[in-house]
Write a structure and sequence with these properties.
The structure holds 2 protein chains of 2 kinds. By secondary structure, chain A is mainly α. Helix content of chain A is about 75%, strand content about 0%. Chain A has one domain. Chain A has 21 helices and 2 strands. In chain A, strands 1-2 form a two-stranded antiparallel ribbon. In chain A, helix 9 runs antiparallel to helix 12. Chain A starts with 17 loop residues before the first helix and ends with a helix. Chain B is mainly alpha-helical. Chain B contains 3 helices and no strands. In chain B, helix 1 packs antiparallel against helix 2. The chains are: A mainly alpha, B mainly alpha. Chains A and B meet through helix 6, helix 7 and helix 10 of A and helix 1, helix 2 and helix 3 of B.
Protein backbone atom coordinates (compact mmCIF):
# COMPACT_ATOMS: atom_id res chain seq x y z
CA UNK A 1 0.00 0.00 0.00
CA UNK A 2 1.12 3.52 -0.77
CA UNK A 3 -0.32 5.16 2.27
CA UNK A 4 2.13 4.65 5.16
CA UNK A 5 -0.51 5.12 7.86
CA UNK A 6 -2.84 2.53 6.35
CA UNK A 7 -3.89 -0.05 8.87
CA UNK A 8 -2.35 -3.43 8.22
CA UNK A 9 -4.83 -6.05 9.31
CA UNK A 10 -3.96 -9.71 9.08
CA UNK A 11 -5.65 -12.90 10.10
CA UNK A 12 -3.04 -13.20 12.86
CA UNK A 13 -4.61 -10.19 14.58
CA UNK A 14 -7.85 -12.01 15.12
CA UNK A 15 -6.08 -14.74 17.04
CA UNK A 16 -6.11 -12.68 20.22
CA UNK A 17 -9.88 -12.47 19.98
CA UNK A 18 -10.52 -16.24 20.05
CA UNK A 19 -11.57 -16.32 23.75
CA UNK A 20 -13.79 -13.30 23.14
CA UNK A 21 -15.33 -14.90 20.07
CA UNK A 22 -16.26 -18.00 22.06
CA UNK A 23 -18.04 -15.93 24.70
CA UNK A 24 -19.77 -13.90 21.98
CA UNK A 25 -20.97 -17.18 20.48
CA UNK A 26 -22.36 -18.17 23.90
CA UNK A 27 -24.21 -14.85 24.10
CA UNK A 28 -25.76 -15.22 20.65
CA UNK A 29 -26.55 -18.94 20.94
CA UNK A 30 -28.24 -18.64 24.32
CA UNK A 31 -30.21 -15.62 23.15
CA UNK A 32 -31.31 -17.29 19.92
CA UNK A 33 -32.01 -20.73 21.30
CA UNK A 34 -33.78 -19.29 24.33
CA UNK A 35 -36.06 -17.34 22.03
CA UNK A 36 -36.81 -20.18 19.58
CA UNK A 37 -37.35 -23.16 21.86
CA UNK A 38 -40.36 -23.38 24.14
CA UNK A 39 -39.53 -23.21 27.86
CA UNK A 40 -38.88 -26.68 29.20
CA UNK A 41 -36.40 -28.34 31.56
CA UNK A 42 -34.64 -29.78 28.50
CA UNK A 43 -34.17 -26.37 26.93
CA UNK A 44 -32.85 -24.95 30.18
CA UNK A 45 -30.38 -27.80 30.48
CA UNK A 46 -29.20 -27.19 26.90
CA UNK A 47 -28.73 -23.48 27.60
CA UNK A 48 -26.71 -24.29 30.71
CA UNK A 49 -24.54 -26.76 28.80
CA UNK A 50 -23.84 -24.16 26.10
CA UNK A 51 -22.79 -21.62 28.74
CA UNK A 52 -20.66 -24.01 30.78
CA UNK A 53 -18.74 -25.32 27.78
CA UNK A 54 -18.46 -21.84 26.30
CA UNK A 55 -16.77 -20.38 29.36
CA UNK A 56 -14.58 -23.46 29.78
CA UNK A 57 -13.61 -23.10 26.11
CA UNK A 58 -12.79 -19.43 26.56
CA UNK A 59 -10.61 -20.17 29.60
CA UNK A 60 -8.76 -22.98 27.79
CA UNK A 61 -8.32 -20.84 24.65
CA UNK A 62 -6.92 -17.95 26.69
CA UNK A 63 -4.51 -20.28 28.50
CA UNK A 64 -3.39 -21.89 25.23
CA UNK A 65 -2.70 -18.47 23.74
CA UNK A 66 -0.39 -17.48 26.62
CA UNK A 67 3.26 -17.03 25.90
CA UNK A 68 4.62 -14.05 24.09
CA UNK A 69 2.91 -10.70 24.62
CA UNK A 70 0.96 -10.55 21.39
CA UNK A 71 -0.28 -7.15 20.34
CA UNK A 72 -2.67 -6.80 17.46
CA UNK A 73 -4.96 -4.37 15.67
CA UNK A 74 -2.23 -1.71 15.43
CA UNK A 75 -1.60 -1.90 19.15
CA UNK A 76 -5.24 -1.49 20.17
CA UNK A 77 -5.38 -4.90 21.80
CA UNK A 78 -2.94 -7.32 23.37
CA UNK A 79 -3.20 -10.79 24.79
CA UNK A 80 -0.33 -10.38 27.22
CA UNK A 81 -0.11 -12.37 30.43
CA UNK A 82 -2.14 -9.87 32.42
CA UNK A 83 -4.91 -10.06 29.84
CA UNK A 84 -4.90 -13.87 30.02
CA UNK A 85 -4.96 -13.77 33.80
CA UNK A 86 -7.89 -11.37 33.96
CA UNK A 87 -9.78 -13.12 31.16
CA UNK A 88 -9.50 -16.36 33.12
CA UNK A 89 -10.77 -14.67 36.29
CA UNK A 90 -13.71 -13.01 34.52
CA UNK A 91 -14.69 -16.11 32.54
CA UNK A 92 -14.36 -18.26 35.66
CA UNK A 93 -16.64 -15.93 37.61
CA UNK A 94 -19.22 -16.18 34.82
CA UNK A 95 -18.86 -19.98 34.86
CA UNK A 96 -19.38 -20.14 38.62
CA UNK A 97 -22.38 -17.83 38.30
CA UNK A 98 -23.91 -20.24 35.77
CA UNK A 99 -23.62 -23.00 38.35
CA UNK A 100 -25.56 -21.07 40.95
CA UNK A 101 -28.08 -19.68 38.42
CA UNK A 102 -29.10 -22.81 36.52
CA UNK A 103 -31.75 -23.82 39.06
CA UNK A 104 -32.55 -20.56 40.79
CA UNK A 105 -33.38 -18.38 37.77
CA UNK A 106 -36.03 -20.72 36.21
CA UNK A 107 -37.42 -21.39 39.70
CA UNK A 108 -38.04 -17.66 40.09
CA UNK A 109 -39.82 -17.42 36.70
CA UNK A 110 -37.11 -15.52 34.90
CA UNK A 111 -36.19 -16.25 31.27
CA UNK A 112 -32.98 -18.28 31.35
CA UNK A 113 -31.97 -17.68 27.70
CA UNK A 114 -31.87 -13.88 28.03
CA UNK A 115 -30.24 -14.21 31.42
CA UNK A 116 -27.33 -16.29 30.11
CA UNK A 117 -27.03 -14.05 27.09
CA UNK A 118 -26.70 -10.88 29.17
CA UNK A 119 -24.26 -12.69 31.45
CA UNK A 120 -22.13 -13.57 28.43
CA UNK A 121 -22.26 -10.03 27.02
CA UNK A 122 -21.14 -8.61 30.35
CA UNK A 123 -18.33 -11.18 30.50
CA UNK A 124 -17.33 -10.25 26.96
CA UNK A 125 -17.11 -6.58 27.98
CA UNK A 126 -14.82 -7.45 30.85
CA UNK A 127 -12.62 -9.60 28.62
CA UNK A 128 -12.35 -6.76 26.10
CA UNK A 129 -11.15 -4.40 28.83
CA UNK A 130 -8.64 -7.01 30.00
CA UNK A 131 -7.06 -7.22 26.55
CA UNK A 132 -7.37 -3.56 25.56
CA UNK A 133 -4.38 -1.23 25.34
CA UNK A 134 -6.31 1.77 24.10
CA UNK A 135 -8.58 4.23 25.88
CA UNK A 136 -11.36 3.81 23.30
CA UNK A 137 -11.40 0.02 23.65
CA UNK A 138 -11.35 0.25 27.44
CA UNK A 139 -14.29 2.63 27.36
CA UNK A 140 -16.32 0.38 25.03
CA UNK A 141 -15.49 -2.72 27.08
CA UNK A 142 -16.46 -1.12 30.40
CA UNK A 143 -19.74 0.05 28.94
CA UNK A 144 -20.60 -3.32 27.41
CA UNK A 145 -19.89 -4.88 30.78
CA UNK A 146 -21.97 -2.41 32.81
CA UNK A 147 -24.90 -1.98 30.41
CA UNK A 148 -25.55 -5.74 30.49
CA UNK A 149 -25.32 -5.75 34.28
CA UNK A 150 -27.91 -2.93 34.58
CA UNK A 151 -30.43 -5.14 32.84
CA UNK A 152 -29.44 -8.15 34.95
CA UNK A 153 -29.84 -6.09 38.13
CA UNK A 154 -33.41 -5.27 37.09
CA UNK A 155 -34.10 -8.88 36.14
CA UNK A 156 -36.57 -9.53 38.96
CA UNK A 157 -38.82 -6.92 37.42
CA UNK A 158 -41.83 -7.87 39.50
CA UNK A 159 -39.99 -6.78 42.63
CA UNK A 160 -39.80 -3.03 43.03
CA UNK A 161 -36.44 -3.12 44.82
CA UNK A 162 -34.86 -4.84 41.85
CA UNK A 163 -35.82 -2.06 39.43
CA UNK A 164 -35.02 0.70 41.87
CA UNK A 165 -31.63 -0.76 42.67
CA UNK A 166 -30.90 -1.15 38.98
CA UNK A 167 -32.01 2.41 38.22
CA UNK A 168 -29.81 3.81 40.97
CA UNK A 169 -26.91 1.75 39.67
CA UNK A 170 -27.65 2.91 36.14
CA UNK A 171 -27.84 6.62 36.94
CA UNK A 172 -24.71 6.72 39.10
CA UNK A 173 -22.75 4.48 36.77
CA UNK A 174 -23.65 6.60 33.72
CA UNK A 175 -22.63 9.67 35.68
CA UNK A 176 -19.31 7.94 36.39
CA UNK A 177 -18.96 7.05 32.71
CA UNK A 178 -19.30 10.72 31.76
CA UNK A 179 -16.58 11.65 34.26
CA UNK A 180 -14.38 8.80 33.06
CA UNK A 181 -14.53 9.75 29.39
CA UNK A 182 -13.99 13.42 30.25
CA UNK A 183 -10.79 12.23 31.90
CA UNK A 184 -9.95 10.17 28.81
CA UNK A 185 -10.62 13.21 26.60
CA UNK A 186 -8.20 15.32 28.63
CA UNK A 187 -5.62 12.55 28.64
CA UNK A 188 -5.90 12.41 24.88
CA UNK A 189 -5.80 16.19 24.61
CA UNK A 190 -2.69 16.57 26.74
CA UNK A 191 -0.68 13.64 25.40
CA UNK A 192 -2.12 13.46 21.89
CA UNK A 193 -2.52 9.69 22.05
CA UNK A 194 -5.19 7.17 22.98
CA UNK A 195 -2.84 4.19 23.04
CA UNK A 196 -1.73 3.53 26.60
CA UNK A 197 1.85 2.67 25.70
CA UNK A 198 2.15 5.89 23.68
CA UNK A 199 0.63 7.88 26.53
CA UNK A 200 3.16 6.39 28.94
CA UNK A 201 6.07 7.14 26.59
CA UNK A 202 4.99 10.75 26.10
CA UNK A 203 4.32 11.37 29.77
CA UNK A 204 7.79 10.07 30.60
CA UNK A 205 9.33 12.89 28.51
CA UNK A 206 7.44 15.65 30.32
CA UNK A 207 9.48 17.82 32.64
CA UNK A 208 6.51 19.27 34.50
CA UNK A 209 4.29 16.44 35.65
CA UNK A 210 2.16 18.61 37.89
CA UNK A 211 0.57 20.66 35.10
CA UNK A 212 -3.07 21.39 36.08
CA UNK A 213 -4.43 19.77 32.92
CA UNK A 214 -2.57 16.53 33.64
CA UNK A 215 -3.75 16.48 37.24
CA UNK A 216 -7.32 17.15 36.10
CA UNK A 217 -7.14 14.23 33.66
CA UNK A 218 -5.75 11.87 36.32
CA UNK A 219 -8.34 13.01 38.88
CA UNK A 220 -11.27 12.50 36.50
CA UNK A 221 -9.97 9.05 35.52
CA UNK A 222 -9.59 7.96 39.15
CA UNK A 223 -13.04 9.23 40.11
CA UNK A 224 -14.68 7.53 37.12
CA UNK A 225 -12.91 4.22 37.69
CA UNK A 226 -13.45 4.48 41.45
CA UNK A 227 -17.20 4.60 40.84
CA UNK A 228 -17.04 1.46 38.74
CA UNK A 229 -14.98 -0.41 41.32
CA UNK A 230 -17.29 0.78 44.17
CA UNK A 231 -14.63 2.68 46.10
CA UNK A 232 -15.77 5.02 48.89
CA UNK A 233 -16.96 7.85 48.52
CA UNK A 234 -18.31 6.63 45.16
CA UNK A 235 -20.03 3.52 46.51
CA UNK A 236 -23.58 4.83 47.07
CA UNK A 237 -25.11 2.61 44.42
CA UNK A 238 -23.56 -0.62 45.69
CA UNK A 239 -25.74 -1.72 48.65
CA UNK A 240 -29.05 -0.94 46.93
CA UNK A 241 -28.12 -2.45 43.59
CA UNK A 242 -26.67 -5.55 45.26
CA UNK A 243 -29.65 -6.06 47.53
CA UNK A 244 -32.26 -5.44 44.86
CA UNK A 245 -30.80 -7.77 42.22
CA UNK A 246 -31.59 -11.51 42.19
CA UNK A 247 -28.90 -13.18 44.32
CA UNK A 248 -27.06 -15.03 41.51
CA UNK A 249 -26.85 -11.69 39.67
CA UNK A 250 -25.50 -10.05 42.83
CA UNK A 251 -22.85 -12.76 42.96
CA UNK A 252 -21.83 -11.96 39.40
CA UNK A 253 -21.98 -8.18 39.70
CA UNK A 254 -19.97 -8.17 42.90
CA UNK A 255 -17.14 -9.84 40.99
CA UNK A 256 -17.07 -9.41 37.21
CA UNK A 257 -17.68 -5.63 36.97
CA UNK A 258 -15.23 -5.12 39.83
CA UNK A 259 -12.56 -7.20 38.13
CA UNK A 260 -13.35 -5.31 34.92
CA UNK A 261 -12.92 -2.01 36.76
CA UNK A 262 -9.60 -3.19 38.18
CA UNK A 263 -8.49 -4.35 34.74
CA UNK A 264 -9.21 -0.82 33.51
CA UNK A 265 -7.48 0.73 36.54
CA UNK A 266 -4.36 -1.39 35.97
CA UNK A 267 -4.28 -0.61 32.27
CA UNK A 268 -5.00 3.11 32.55
CA UNK A 269 -3.20 4.08 35.75
CA UNK A 270 -0.30 1.64 35.69
CA UNK A 271 0.35 1.03 32.02
CA UNK A 272 -0.76 4.45 30.78
CA UNK A 273 -0.30 6.90 33.63
CA UNK A 274 2.59 5.02 35.25
CA UNK A 275 4.94 8.04 34.94
CA UNK A 276 2.43 10.09 36.96
CA UNK A 277 2.70 7.63 39.85
CA UNK A 278 3.69 10.24 42.39
CA UNK A 279 0.60 12.26 41.57
CA UNK A 280 -2.04 9.52 41.74
CA UNK A 281 -0.72 7.26 44.51
CA UNK A 282 -1.67 9.67 47.39
CA UNK A 283 -5.23 9.80 46.05
CA UNK A 284 -5.41 6.00 45.84
CA UNK A 285 -4.16 5.73 49.43
CA UNK A 286 -6.93 8.05 50.65
CA UNK A 287 -9.53 6.09 48.67
CA UNK A 288 -8.25 2.75 49.96
CA UNK A 289 -8.38 3.78 53.63
CA UNK A 290 -11.86 5.30 53.28
CA UNK A 291 -13.13 2.27 51.38
CA UNK A 292 -11.76 -0.31 53.82
CA UNK A 293 -12.96 1.61 56.87
CA UNK A 294 -16.47 2.38 55.70
CA UNK A 295 -17.04 -1.04 54.10
CA UNK A 296 -16.03 -2.92 57.23
CA UNK A 297 -17.65 -0.65 59.80
CA UNK A 298 -21.03 -0.37 58.08
CA UNK A 299 -21.08 -4.13 57.41
CA UNK A 300 -21.16 -4.68 61.19
CA UNK A 301 -24.55 -2.98 61.47
CA UNK A 302 -26.24 -5.13 58.80
CA UNK A 303 -28.77 -7.80 59.76
CA UNK A 304 -29.34 -8.74 56.15
CA UNK A 305 -26.58 -11.04 54.91
CA UNK A 306 -26.93 -9.88 51.32
CA UNK A 307 -26.43 -6.27 52.35
CA UNK A 308 -23.61 -7.29 54.68
CA UNK A 309 -21.87 -9.01 51.75
CA UNK A 310 -22.42 -5.85 49.68
CA UNK A 311 -20.52 -3.76 52.23
CA UNK A 312 -17.94 -6.50 52.57
CA UNK A 313 -17.37 -6.31 48.81
CA UNK A 314 -16.74 -2.58 49.24
CA UNK A 315 -14.19 -3.43 51.93
CA UNK A 316 -12.47 -5.86 49.55
CA UNK A 317 -12.20 -3.09 46.95
CA UNK A 318 -10.30 -1.19 49.63
CA UNK A 319 -7.83 -4.04 50.13
CA UNK A 320 -7.24 -4.20 46.38
CA UNK A 321 -6.62 -0.45 46.30
CA UNK A 322 -3.94 -0.90 48.99
CA UNK A 323 -2.13 -3.17 46.56
CA UNK A 324 -2.45 -0.52 43.86
CA UNK A 325 -1.16 2.18 46.21
CA UNK A 326 2.00 0.13 46.70
CA UNK A 327 2.84 0.48 43.00
CA UNK A 328 6.34 1.83 42.37
CA UNK A 329 7.41 0.99 38.87
CA UNK A 330 6.70 -1.47 36.13
CA UNK A 331 9.24 -4.26 36.20
CA UNK A 332 10.75 -6.98 38.33
CA UNK A 333 10.87 -6.62 42.10
CA UNK A 334 7.58 -4.79 42.36
CA UNK A 335 5.02 -7.05 44.00
CA UNK A 336 2.13 -4.60 44.05
CA UNK A 337 0.34 -5.34 40.79
CA UNK A 338 0.73 -9.14 41.03
CA UNK A 339 -0.83 -8.91 44.49
CA UNK A 340 -3.80 -6.96 43.11
CA UNK A 341 -4.25 -9.51 40.32
CA UNK A 342 -4.07 -12.36 42.83
CA UNK A 343 -6.61 -10.65 45.05
CA UNK A 344 -9.05 -10.38 42.16
CA UNK A 345 -8.58 -14.08 41.46
CA UNK A 346 -9.15 -15.09 45.10
CA UNK A 347 -12.07 -12.73 45.57
CA UNK A 348 -13.98 -14.26 42.63
CA UNK A 349 -14.13 -17.74 44.15
CA UNK A 350 -14.93 -16.87 47.74
CA UNK A 351 -17.44 -14.12 47.05
CA UNK A 352 -19.47 -16.00 44.43
CA UNK A 353 -19.38 -18.95 46.81
CA UNK A 354 -20.88 -16.96 49.69
CA UNK A 355 -23.59 -15.51 47.47
CA UNK A 356 -24.15 -18.99 46.05
CA UNK A 357 -25.06 -20.44 49.45
CA UNK A 358 -27.34 -17.44 49.97
CA UNK A 359 -29.07 -18.19 46.65
CA UNK A 360 -29.36 -21.84 47.68
CA UNK A 361 -31.05 -20.75 50.90
CA UNK A 362 -33.50 -18.56 48.98
CA UNK A 363 -34.23 -21.42 46.62
CA UNK A 364 -35.40 -23.31 49.70
CA UNK A 365 -37.88 -20.61 50.62
CA UNK A 366 -35.79 -18.72 53.16
CA UNK A 367 -34.93 -15.02 53.31
CA UNK A 368 -31.50 -13.38 53.47
CA UNK A 369 -31.25 -12.22 57.08
CA UNK A 370 -28.88 -13.77 59.61
CA UNK A 371 -31.82 -15.45 61.34
CA UNK A 372 -32.53 -17.40 58.15
CA UNK A 373 -29.18 -19.11 58.63
CA UNK A 374 -30.12 -20.39 62.10
CA UNK A 375 -29.36 -24.05 62.53
CA UNK A 376 -28.42 -24.64 58.90
CA UNK A 377 -25.56 -26.89 60.01
CA UNK A 378 -28.04 -29.38 61.44
CA UNK A 379 -30.33 -29.79 58.43
CA UNK A 380 -27.87 -29.16 55.60
CA UNK A 381 -24.32 -29.62 56.80
CA UNK A 382 -22.60 -29.51 53.36
CA UNK A 383 -24.06 -26.10 52.52
CA UNK A 384 -23.34 -24.77 56.01
CA UNK A 385 -19.77 -26.06 55.86
CA UNK A 386 -19.30 -24.49 52.42
CA UNK A 387 -20.63 -21.14 53.69
CA UNK A 388 -18.36 -21.28 56.72
CA UNK A 389 -15.45 -22.07 54.41
CA UNK A 390 -16.15 -19.04 52.18
CA UNK A 391 -16.65 -16.72 55.15
CA UNK A 392 -13.41 -17.89 56.77
CA UNK A 393 -11.67 -17.26 53.48
CA UNK A 394 -13.20 -13.77 53.19
CA UNK A 395 -12.00 -13.04 56.72
CA UNK A 396 -8.52 -14.22 55.76
CA UNK A 397 -8.03 -17.33 57.86
CA UNK A 398 -4.95 -19.35 56.85
CA UNK A 399 -4.42 -21.52 54.85
CA UNK A 400 -7.39 -20.52 52.69
CA UNK A 401 -7.21 -18.52 49.49
CA UNK A 402 -8.39 -15.30 51.13
CA UNK A 403 -5.52 -15.39 53.60
CA UNK A 404 -2.88 -15.51 50.87
CA UNK A 405 -4.63 -12.73 48.96
CA UNK A 406 -4.43 -10.42 51.97
CA UNK A 407 -0.92 -11.63 52.80
CA UNK A 408 0.43 -10.62 49.36
CA UNK A 409 -1.30 -7.23 49.58
CA UNK A 410 0.18 -6.58 53.02
CA UNK A 411 3.61 -7.71 51.85
CA UNK A 412 3.45 -5.35 48.87
CA UNK A 413 2.39 -2.45 51.10
CA UNK A 414 5.27 -3.06 53.51
CA UNK A 415 7.79 -3.35 50.69
CA UNK A 416 6.59 -0.03 49.32
CA UNK A 417 7.12 1.56 52.74
CA UNK A 418 3.47 1.88 53.76
CA UNK A 419 3.68 -0.17 56.95
CA UNK A 420 0.85 1.83 58.54
CA UNK A 421 -1.41 0.92 55.61
CA UNK A 422 -0.60 -2.75 56.20
CA UNK A 423 -1.51 -2.31 59.86
CA UNK A 424 -4.86 -0.79 58.85
CA UNK A 425 -5.54 -3.81 56.61
CA UNK A 426 -4.82 -6.22 59.48
CA UNK A 427 -6.91 -4.29 62.01
CA UNK A 428 -9.91 -3.99 59.72
CA UNK A 429 -9.65 -7.68 58.80
CA UNK A 430 -9.99 -8.40 62.49
CA UNK A 431 -13.11 -6.22 62.55
CA UNK A 432 -14.48 -8.10 59.55
CA UNK A 433 -14.16 -11.38 61.45
CA UNK A 434 -16.99 -10.16 63.69
CA UNK A 435 -19.64 -9.87 61.01
CA UNK A 436 -18.49 -12.85 58.95
CA UNK A 437 -18.32 -15.19 61.91
CA UNK A 438 -21.71 -14.05 63.20
CA UNK A 439 -23.23 -15.91 60.26
CA UNK A 440 -21.12 -18.98 61.03
CA UNK A 441 -22.29 -18.82 64.65
CA UNK A 442 -25.93 -18.63 63.55
CA UNK A 443 -25.49 -21.69 61.33
CA UNK A 444 -23.78 -23.83 63.96
CA UNK A 445 -25.31 -22.62 67.23
CA UNK A 446 -28.69 -21.26 66.08
CA UNK A 447 -32.02 -22.94 66.69
CA UNK A 448 -32.49 -25.55 63.92
CA UNK A 449 -36.31 -25.28 64.01
CA UNK A 450 -37.44 -24.07 60.60
CA UNK A 451 -34.06 -24.58 58.91
CA UNK A 452 -34.56 -25.84 55.35
CA UNK A 453 -34.15 -29.48 54.39
CA UNK A 454 -32.20 -29.72 51.14
CA UNK A 455 -34.08 -30.60 47.97
CA UNK A 456 -32.34 -32.20 44.99
CA UNK A 457 -29.94 -29.55 43.80
CA UNK A 458 -27.11 -31.63 42.45
CA UNK A 459 -25.89 -29.13 39.85
CA UNK A 460 -25.85 -26.41 42.47
CA UNK A 461 -23.85 -28.72 44.70
CA UNK A 462 -21.27 -29.28 41.98
CA UNK A 463 -20.77 -25.52 41.69
CA UNK A 464 -20.42 -24.98 45.42
CA UNK A 465 -18.12 -27.98 45.66
CA UNK A 466 -15.93 -26.62 42.88
CA UNK A 467 -15.66 -23.28 44.68
CA UNK A 468 -14.82 -24.90 48.03
CA UNK A 469 -12.17 -26.97 46.29
CA UNK A 470 -10.75 -23.91 44.53
CA UNK A 471 -10.60 -21.88 47.73
CA UNK A 472 -8.65 -24.67 49.42
CA UNK A 473 -6.55 -25.79 46.47
CA UNK A 474 -5.50 -22.37 45.19
CA UNK A 475 -4.68 -21.40 48.75
CA UNK A 476 -2.07 -24.16 48.74
CA UNK A 477 -1.06 -23.37 45.16
CA UNK A 478 -0.93 -19.63 45.77
CA UNK A 479 2.77 -19.51 44.82
CA UNK A 480 2.36 -20.68 41.21
CA UNK A 481 -0.71 -18.48 40.69
CA UNK A 482 1.16 -15.45 41.95
CA UNK A 483 4.07 -16.33 39.67
CA UNK A 484 1.65 -16.29 36.77
CA UNK A 485 0.46 -12.84 37.82
CA UNK A 486 4.06 -11.69 38.17
CA UNK A 487 4.97 -12.74 34.64
CA UNK A 488 3.09 -9.83 33.16
CA UNK A 489 5.53 -7.49 34.76
CA UNK A 490 8.55 -9.09 33.22
CA UNK A 491 6.82 -9.32 29.86
CA UNK A 492 5.68 -5.71 29.64
CA UNK B 1 -13.75 39.58 15.96
CA UNK B 2 -11.16 37.20 17.30
CA UNK B 3 -10.65 33.75 15.95
CA UNK B 4 -12.13 30.69 17.65
CA UNK B 5 -9.32 28.80 19.37
CA UNK B 6 -9.03 25.53 21.22
CA UNK B 7 -9.58 27.42 24.47
CA UNK B 8 -13.03 28.57 23.41
CA UNK B 9 -14.19 25.06 22.65
CA UNK B 10 -12.73 23.65 25.85
CA UNK B 11 -14.43 26.36 27.89
CA UNK B 12 -17.74 25.63 26.23
CA UNK B 13 -17.24 21.94 26.89
CA UNK B 14 -16.31 22.51 30.53
CA UNK B 15 -19.34 24.75 31.06
CA UNK B 16 -21.70 22.20 29.53
CA UNK B 17 -20.10 19.46 31.59
CA UNK B 18 -20.49 21.39 34.84
CA UNK B 19 -24.11 22.31 34.00
CA UNK B 20 -24.82 18.61 33.40
CA UNK B 21 -23.08 17.65 36.62
CA UNK B 22 -25.09 20.18 38.63
CA UNK B 23 -28.24 18.86 37.01
CA UNK B 24 -27.44 15.30 38.08
CA UNK B 25 -26.62 16.36 41.62
CA UNK B 26 -29.52 18.73 42.26
CA UNK B 27 -32.54 17.59 40.25
CA UNK B 28 -35.04 15.05 41.53
CA UNK B 29 -36.75 13.97 38.32
CA UNK B 30 -35.19 10.83 36.85
CA UNK B 31 -35.72 11.99 33.26
CA UNK B 32 -34.00 15.33 33.93
CA UNK B 33 -31.10 13.54 35.66
CA UNK B 34 -30.87 11.32 32.63
CA UNK B 35 -30.89 14.33 30.27
CA UNK B 36 -28.15 15.94 32.36
CA UNK B 37 -26.00 12.82 31.97
CA UNK B 38 -26.51 13.00 28.20
CA UNK B 39 -25.45 16.66 28.36
CA UNK B 40 -22.26 15.63 30.13
CA UNK B 41 -21.52 12.99 27.49
CA UNK B 42 -22.03 15.51 24.70
CA UNK B 43 -19.86 18.05 26.49
CA UNK B 44 -17.11 15.44 26.36
CA UNK B 45 -17.72 15.04 22.63
CA UNK B 46 -17.09 18.76 22.12
CA UNK B 47 -13.76 18.39 23.95
CA UNK B 48 -12.80 15.27 22.02
CA UNK B 49 -13.49 16.83 18.64
CA UNK B 50 -11.78 20.10 19.57
CA UNK B 51 -8.70 18.20 20.76
CA UNK B 52 -8.76 16.08 17.62
CA UNK B 53 -8.87 19.17 15.43
CA UNK B 54 -6.13 20.88 17.42
CA UNK B 55 -3.85 17.85 17.41
CA UNK B 56 -4.71 17.20 13.77
CA UNK B 57 -5.49 13.57 14.55
CA UNK B 58 -8.55 11.58 13.62
CA UNK B 59 -8.66 9.70 16.93
CA UNK B 60 -10.68 12.41 18.67
CA UNK B 61 -13.49 12.21 16.16
CA UNK B 62 -13.53 8.43 16.22
CA UNK B 63 -13.64 8.48 19.99
CA UNK B 64 -16.60 10.88 19.81
CA UNK B 65 -18.46 8.51 17.49
CA UNK B 66 -17.95 5.69 19.97
CA UNK B 67 -19.24 7.93 22.77
CA UNK B 68 -22.36 8.75 20.73
CA UNK B 69 -22.95 5.05 20.03
CA UNK B 70 -22.60 4.07 23.67
CA UNK B 71 -24.81 6.98 24.74
CA UNK B 72 -27.53 5.65 22.45
CA UNK B 73 -27.29 2.18 23.98
CA UNK B 74 -27.32 3.73 27.42
CA UNK B 75 -30.44 5.74 26.55
CA UNK B 76 -32.23 2.60 25.39
CA UNK B 77 -31.50 0.76 28.63
CA UNK B 78 -32.13 3.76 30.86
CA UNK B 79 -35.49 4.56 29.29
CA UNK B 80 -36.41 0.89 29.48
CA UNK B 81 -35.72 0.87 33.22
CA UNK B 82 -37.65 4.11 33.74
CA UNK B 83 -40.58 2.66 31.77
CA UNK B 84 -40.72 -0.48 33.92
CA UNK B 85 -40.55 1.64 37.05
CA UNK B 86 -43.28 4.12 36.02
CA UNK B 87 -45.57 1.24 35.10
CA UNK B 88 -45.38 0.29 38.74
CA UNK B 89 -45.69 3.67 40.38
CA UNK B 90 -46.82 6.44 37.98
CA UNK B 91 -44.04 8.83 38.92
CA UNK B 92 -40.53 9.64 37.75
CA UNK B 93 -39.45 11.41 40.92
CA UNK B 94 -36.27 9.95 42.46
CA UNK B 95 -37.41 10.89 45.95
CA UNK B 96 -40.17 8.34 45.56
CA UNK B 97 -37.46 5.77 44.87
CA UNK B 98 -36.57 5.28 48.48
CA UNK B 99 -37.51 1.72 49.27
CA UNK B 100 -33.89 0.78 49.90
CA UNK B 101 -31.94 2.59 52.57
CA UNK B 102 -28.72 2.31 54.52
Amino acid sequence: MDNPVAVALTLEDFKILIPHAIVLAVALLTLGYGAIAAPSPGRNAALTVISVFGYLGAIVAALLLTGQPRTAFSGMGALDDMAVFLIVVIAASALLTVFISAQTIPAWDMPLGEYYSLLAFSTLGGMLVASAVDLVMIFVGIELSSLSVFVLAAFAKRRRESIEGALKYFLLSSFATAILIYGMAWTYGVTGATNLNDISLRLATYQDRTAPTLLLAALLLIVGLGFKAAAVPFHMWTPDAYQGAPTPVTAFMSVAPKVTAFAAILRVLVQGLGPLREQWVPLVIVLSVLTMALGNLVAIAQRDVKRMLAYSSIAHTGYMLVGLAAFRQIGGGDESIPSVLFYNFAYAFMNIGAFGVLAWLQLHGKGTTIDDFNGLAVTAWPQAAAMAFFLFSLTGVPPLLGFYAKYFIILAAIEAGYTWLAVVVVLLSAVSAYYYLRVVAAMYFGDPAGAPTPARTRFFGVGLGAMVLSVALFGILSGPVLDLARQWYLAL
Amino acid sequence: MGELTLGHFLTLSALLFVIGMLGVLTRKNILIIFMSIELMLNAVNVSLIAFGRYLDSIAGQIFAIFVITIAAAEAAIGLGLILVLTRRQDSVDVTSVSLLKE
